[in-house]
Amino acid sequence: MDNNEKIIKDAQYRKGLSIAFFNATNSAINLISNKKYNNTKEELDHVVVLRDFFLKEHQNYYATVIANIGVNYRAEDSIKKLKDSKTLEELQDNWRLLSEDERRDGEIIKVAKEIKKKFKNEEA
Fold it and tell me: Is the pTM of this model over 0.85?
């Protein structure tokens, strides 16, 4: 992942966290809004407890669902497949078998280019 991709990913994460914070706060307020609301410290503390509960639920959801999207491969395994290629044609076939995410992975691209260069040099 290059630096620009990392910056974008971090910004998206912070934006999602900010949205989750306000959604959690609004949900907590909505839950107690049916009661007569007197703006007491106890009621405000209850909003904070509910908000924190919703934020924890969001954190768990993010860790188990969102964070794993697009990360369904191990670069080491993909690189091994490419290194096991015996010919340039086999390398190209193995490259086509990789997922789009794998083909955009900088580490995998670097290794693929090195192997391709090696096969090209052997042909010459």
Answer: no
